[in-house]
Amino acid sequence: MRIMICEDAVLLREGLVRLLDDAGHTVVAALPDASGLMAAVAEDAPDLLILDVRLPPTFTDEGIRAALAVRAANPNMAILVLSQYVEERYATELITANSAGLGYLLKDRVADVTEFLESAANVAGGATVLDPEVVAQLLSRRRRDARLERLTERERDVLALMAQGKSNSAIAAALFISEGSVEKHISALFTKLDLETSASDNRRVLAVLTHLGADSGATS
C-alpha cells in the first residue's frame, strides 16, 4: 500500500514511517505541514493519506481543512486522521462531508501497532473507522434525539461497535451473542433511526455516523 503522511511532530512522523515500512507498505512522502499536500497527492497518488488534525502554522484546523480539500479533489482518497484529543466538531465535519474510506483515531492508538495497522488497512479498503472515544462522545451528544432514545441498550452497543468498523462476526464475539442476533439488532436499530438499510456494511456505518454527527438543529 502506498501511504502519505502529514504530521508536524518529527518523532511521530518518523515513527509512522518506520512502522509502516516494517509492515511492508511504501511511504511515498512524509510532510511536516499541509502547504504542499495537494501537489504531493496529485503527484504521488497514495492509497492512503494519514494526517494530523492540527498542523502549522496555527495548529487549529489546518489538517481538517486539508483533508476536506483532498477529498473534494479526490473523492475516493482514503484518509486516516490522527488527533491528540477527541475534537468532536472536526470529527463531525469529516463524517458528514463524504463517504467511506475515512478514519479518525486518537494518537494513543498508534501505540497498539497491530490495531493501528488493521485500522489503516480497513480505511484504505473503504471502511469507516472511528476511535471508540469519538463514537462515545457522538453518541452522548445525540442522546436527546428522540430516534436515538428508541434504541435498547443492546442496540446501542451494536451501534457503537458498528461505528468502530467492526464486522458482524466481530460484534457477535465482543457481545457474546450470535451473528444472527447481531443482524436482527442492526435491522431493528435502522428501523428505529429511520435509516435506509443497505447491503454494504460500510455504507450503513456511514449512514449511522452521519445521523449521529448531524448538527443538533437537524430535523428530528
UniProtKB/TrEMBL annotation:
Entry-linked SMART domains: HTH_LUXR, REC
Taxonomic superkingdom: Bacteria
Ranges where the Response regulatory domain occurs: 2-122
Keyword Transcription regulation: yes
Location of 4-aspartylphosphate modifications: D52
InterPro entries cross-referenced by the UniProt entry: CheY-like_superfamily, NreC/VraR/RcsB-like_REC, Sig_transdc_resp-reg_C-effctor, Sig_transdc_resp-reg_receiver, Tscrpt_reg_LuxR_C, WalR-like
Listed CDD domains: LuxR_C_like, REC_NarL-like
Keywords, ordered alphabetically: DNA-binding, Phosphoprotein, Transcription, Transcription regulation
Domain HTH luxR-type: 144-214
Entries under Gene3D superfamilies matching the protein: 3.40.50.2300
Record's keyword annotation contains Transmembrane helix: no
GO process terms (BP): phosphorelay signal transduction system; regulation of DNA-templated transcription
A GO term, aspect molecular function: DNA binding
The protein's name: Response regulator transcription factor
Organism: Microbacterium mitrae
